[in-house]
Design a protein that fits this description.
The complex is a heterodimer of chains A (158) and B (74).
Chain A lengths: L8 H30 L4 H8 L29 H36 L9 H28 L6
Helix pairs in contact in A: 1-2, 1-4, 3-4
Chain B lengths: L2 H6 E3 L1 H7 L5 H8 L3 H8 L7 H11 L3 H4 E3 L3
Antiparallel strand pairs in B: 1-2
Helix pairs in contact in B: 3-4
The chains are: A mainly alpha (158), B mainly alpha (74).
Chain lengths: 158, 74
């Protein structure tokens, strides 16, 4: 007889990260037309300040609570296989981070140099580029965690 | 360990569970200090455990590690 398997702590963390990201994306998509209408801007001009809604991803920091044992708070509830999954997913996330970070850096530099004929990068761009890279890293890592759980223990629950 | 090598490592965990009073995957997981998903992956031959976990599994069934795991490799 098959029964449902309760989510492992790492799976809960991954779902939490993806849900927070999905909410941030949804709010962003709603905020752009709102800002455009409210502040009489074009959609393109409203898109940049609306990026602030991705600050919601800051609550990812609370996700680590999923990994701790409620009875023994200092002990992380991951066994050896889950630690391996986490490590592999982190490698996937790191690869995604570098790809996105380098692409964004080069893209911003190219636009500023060849389109706006501006020699220097505004200092405000750097934290934005790093945060964008980290958001992509976390999302890729979460997907990789869920994919690995799905691959290694799909429907074999009897 | 590569997936091919992992496939060469057979185990009798499912049979041993049923021989031990139809022990559930969760009960076995609790005994050896692993997640239920890890037991599922082990039974499906999709994960090769560490020596420590292998010994824990054998101890949980009261048998030797050779009774739990068999390696078909060269």
């Amino acid at each position: 007889m098959k029964d449902s398997i309760p989510l492992a702590p790492l799976q809960r963390l991954a779902w939490f990260n993806l849900i927070v990201f999905a909410v941030a994306v949804a709010l962003y998509l709603m905020a752009v037309p709102f800002f455009a209408g409210h502040f009489h801007r074009t959609l393109a001009a409203a898109a940049q300040p609306a990026l602030g809604l991705f600050g919601l991803c800051g609550i990812w920091g609370f996700g680590s609570f999923f990994l701790y044992d409620r009875k023994r708070r200092a002990k992380v509830k991951l066994d050896e296989r889950e630690e391996l999954i986490n490590l592999q997913a982190a490698a996937v996330g790191l690869a995604a981070f570098w790809l996105v970070f380098v692409a964004l850096c080069m893209g911003v530099w190219a636009v500023l140099t060849y389109v706006r004929h501006q020699a220097t990068l505004p200092v405000g761009f750097l934290p934005f580029l790093v945060i964008a890279g980290l958001v992509v890293q976390t999302v890729f890592q979460s997907f990789a965690i869920l994919a690995e759980y799905k691959r290694s223990c799909g429907d074999d629950t009897h | 360990m590569t997936p091919t090598e992992s496939a060469q490592l057979k185990n009798r965990i499912r049979k041993l569970r049923f021989d031990h009073g139809e022990m559930t995957q969760q009960e076995l997981a609790d005994r050896v200090g692993a997640a239920r998903q890890t037991i599922i992956a082990l039974e499906a031959g999709k994960y090769a455990p560490s020596l420590l976990l292998a010994f824990r599994l054998a101890k949980a069934f009261g048998v030797t590690t050779e009774d739990v795991f068999q390696w078909d490799g060269d």
